[in-house]
């Protein structure tokens, strides 16, 4: 019987679907992300009451919320492989690049879905008004991709370590810091009804590209070590 070799795209898609099916069965990451987001939003809302926060502080709160939601659940893409003993099978049958980008797509999808759910609640609870919706959505997408890219490669780094969850956050934050600060400043401009510069958007997009290229180069060493 001839051996069927899947293309890189098909292998990426298969790994993303595998993670999606596993998550649908356990709902661990979804529950962690959603519960953390809801509890954090409720706490912020009760703490500030009817007060209206400055736009820069509101933007910072939004991205801090998204960052720590990601830290609560996105490390599972490699931790669950290590804990269930399936990581060896992936190393044998899945190329490093397919594993990296399959899990990156899954993390991106998870984070974008969470963002869609919490943005309306964030607007209502903090009583804010969004200007330039198209640019705001683009900033959210680019920021989420950056968080997912950084989270995926650091999750691979810490999967075999002790205290992996604490180490995951500590390692991800410095990698993501330039994108994080850019997301906050660009979002603050939007909340102030100031149209962001094209350079702000270009920086976010370029940082994501550089981060994914660097992750792609580094990942094979991590994956087969």
From TrEMBL:
<feature type="transmembrane region" description="Helical">
    <location>
        <begin position="130"/>
        <end position="153"/>
    </location>
</feature>
<keyword id="KW-0472">Membrane</keyword>
<comment type="similarity">
    <text>Belongs to the CcmB/CycW/HelB family.</text>
</comment>
<keyword id="KW-0201">Cytochrome c-type biogenesis</keyword>
<dbReference type="GO" id="GO:0015232">
    <property type="term" value="F:heme transmembrane transporter activity"/>
</dbReference>
<keyword id="KW-0812">Transmembrane</keyword>
<dbReference type="InterPro" id="IPR003544">
    <property type="entry name" value="Cyt_c_biogenesis_CcmB"/>
</dbReference>
<dbReference type="GO" id="GO:1903607">
    <property type="term" value="P:cytochrome c biosynthetic process"/>
</dbReference>
<dbReference type="Pfam" id="PF03379">
    <property type="entry name" value="CcmB"/>
</dbReference>
<keyword id="KW-0813">Transport</keyword>
<feature type="transmembrane region" description="Helical">
    <location>
        <begin position="100"/>
        <end position="124"/>
    </location>
</feature>
<keyword id="KW-1133">Transmembrane helix</keyword>
<dbReference type="GO" id="GO:0005886">
    <property type="term" value="C:plasma membrane"/>
</dbReference>
<feature type="transmembrane region" description="Helical">
    <location>
        <begin position="57"/>
        <end position="79"/>
    </location>
</feature>
<feature type="transmembrane region" description="Helical">
    <location>
        <begin position="201"/>
        <end position="224"/>
    </location>
</feature>
<protein>
    <submittedName>
        <fullName>Heme exporter protein B</fullName>
    </submittedName>
</protein>
<feature type="transmembrane region" description="Helical">
    <location>
        <begin position="165"/>
        <end position="181"/>
    </location>
</feature>
<dbReference type="GO" id="GO:0017004">
    <property type="term" value="P:cytochrome complex assembly"/>
</dbReference>
């Amino acid at each position: 019987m001839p051996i069927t070799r899947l293309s890189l795209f098909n292998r990426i898609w298969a790994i993303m679907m595998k993670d999606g099916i596993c998550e649908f069965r356990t709902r661990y990451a979804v529950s962690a992300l959603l519960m953390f987001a809801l509890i954090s939003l409720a706490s912020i809302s009760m703490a500030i009451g009817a007060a209206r926060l400055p736009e820069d502080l509101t933007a910072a709160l939004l991205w801090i919320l998204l960052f720590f939601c990601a830290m609560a659940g996105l490390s599972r893409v490699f931790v669950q492989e290590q804990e269930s003993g399936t990581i060896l099978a992936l190393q044998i049958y899945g190329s490093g690049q397919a594993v990296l980008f399959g899990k990156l797509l899954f993390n991106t999808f998870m984070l974008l879905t969470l963002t869609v759910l919490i943005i309306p609640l964030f607007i209502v609870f903090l009583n804010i008004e969004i200007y330039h919706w198209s640019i705001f959505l683009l900033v959210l997408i680019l920021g989420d991709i950056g968080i997912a890219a950084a989270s995926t490669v650091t999750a691979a780094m810490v999967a075999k370590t002790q205290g992996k969850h604490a180490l995951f956050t500590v390692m991800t934050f410095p990698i993501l810091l330039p994108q994080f600060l850019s997301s906050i400043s660009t979002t603050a401009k939007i909340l102030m009804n100031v149209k962001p510069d094209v350079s702000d958007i270009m920086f976010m997009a370029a940082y994501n590209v550089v981060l994914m290229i660097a992750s792609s180069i580094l990942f094979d060493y991590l994956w087969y070590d």
